[in-house]
Amino acid sequence: MKKFKWIQIFALMSILMLIMQGCSTGSSSKGEEKEDKQVASGDKSGGKLVVVRLSDATGLDPHFITDIPSANVVHGKVYETLLAFDKDRNFVPLLATDWNPVDDLTWDFTLREGVKFHDGTPFNAEAVKATFDRLLDPATGSPQKDKLGMISEVIVKDDTHITLKLSTPYAPLLSILASNEGSILSPKMINETPDQLATHPVGTGPFVFDSWKSGQEITLNKNNDYWGEKAKVDSVVFKVVPEDATRLAMIESGEAHISDQVPVTEIERIENSDKMNLFRTDGLAVEYVGFNTTKAPFDNVKVRQAVSFAIEREAIISGVYNNVGTLANVAMSPQVFGYSKDVKAYPYDVNKAKSLLKEAGYDKGIKVTLLTSDRKERINMAEVIQSQLKGIGIDVEIQVMEYGSYIQQITNGDHQMFIGGWGNATGDGDYNQYNLFHSASIGAPGNHFYYQNPVVDKLIEQGRVETEPSKRQEIYKQAMQVEMDDAVYVPIRNYEHLAVYNNNVENFRLDASNYLILNEVTVK
């Protein structure tokens, strides 16, 4: 590929990701010892892999998926992208064998030959064009549209060559194309039954969608006609098991094999078990308390600032999360390009919080609702916050919802204050900034704060087109400072991703985006 300033961007991103991997805690030492034994035991193929999860997916159409748990079912399994991230977060070929930035507005891609979709349709340049045309068509109504909205035209040169023309330079282009948003869909499904993509995904990946029993399980089968190295297991079942204790019991007994939703209170039990292993890795996600900035009383910046001063974040990290993860200062992980340590979160100051509430006219008390999904840690966090805010005269009612209903609630804007998280899938700051804070992303795309600030919008747009890494970093620093001044959210925790797996499982890992990497997994 040609080398010029675009490459500098991605080289820097790769360096940052390598640093991230170096800092990763990896699997537990006990797990590493068992892994050595597993490798020595030889490769085994076949069987059913059971993954137990707290909640069901909310949908399976990549053009409408906005949460990692749903994307985790299909990304890299049913669907593939033009390029991908390897374990060190470097870009590697997938459905495209080569890519070449001709200039700031033009990218050429060479496509892999001999690939077919699960419905038998050939993968070619027309399939890529059909996918991106659907995504970018306003009539589709995709919440992902703006992530690739700078693509002005997809030009088919021949079956194996396409050109992407951009309306403006876009620094994170490759990182988006390698993520769930860049999934390539069957053109037959797009043309004939597009509405079925939400419940019946059809891609080119190593697993073929089999069935979805809503609220119970999703089954994928091995793609025996896969163009690349075939999956080791015959099938994968994503089974919904809401109870934390039941999920762990299933892993320990061998009834299930993997769970990527591990209560921090159970770490010691897992590490002391001779049948379970704990996988740990630093993530790209951040957890926060967010405000609906359009709903009273949080349409008043002084109220938001008061709450920000009144939450003792360090106590949540130690008391709720048992020091799993680290204290966040912004809504961007230190592992993500564009992060700045110079933007400071509000310090714990009860007197300042009370003073701001008085200035806002709420010195006689206030009642608010705090919405959370039904994850145990988030419920515990909500209870801690409820106690902390009581000290400044805020009466907090906690509303707990099943994950799908929770997503619907914050997407519709039917909330005041909420506990949320953003799982960056690309390692680039644009994925945080544009999706969380740009006014065009209000609602489903990710701006559940319903936040609008023309200054922030302009900065985020500048960050997208700027090709000099140091300038991009400064732009994001400025944007994050304005967001902090506006007290849009309270940063709580930089994620450390956890997964538990049974001794019978080999070659399993999570990546930094919390995606399950299952292609090489075997079950004894």
Task: Describe the secondary structure blueprint for this structure.
Blueprint: H1 5-23, H2 29-40, E1 48-53, H3 68-74, E2 83-85, E3 91-93, E4 96-103, E5 106-111, H4 125-136, E6 151-158, E7 161-166, H5 173-177, H6 187-192, E8 207-213, E9 217-222, E10 235-240, H7 244-253, E11 258-259, H8 267-272, E12 276-291, H9 301-310, H10 313-319, E13 326-327, H11 350-359, E14 366-373, H12 376-390, E15 394-401, H13 403-412, E16 417-423, H14 429-437, H15 454-465, H16 469-485, E17 489-502, E18 505-506, E19 509-510, E20 516-517, E21 522-523
Parallel strand pairs: 1-10, 14-15, 14-16
Antiparallel strand pairs: 2-3, 4-5, 5-7, 6-7, 8-9, 9-10, 11-17, 12-16, 12-17, 13-17, 18-21, 19-20
Main sheet record: 7 strands, mixed
Report the average pLDDT across residues: 91
Low-confidence stretches: 1-42
SS-based structural class? alpha+beta
Shape: globular
Number of strands: 21
Number of helices: 16
Beta-strand content bin: 15-25%
Distance between the termini: 42 Å
What keyword list fits this structure?
524 residues; disordered N terminus; 32% helix; alpha+beta; 4-stranded mixed beta sheet; 16 helices; 7-stranded mixed beta sheet
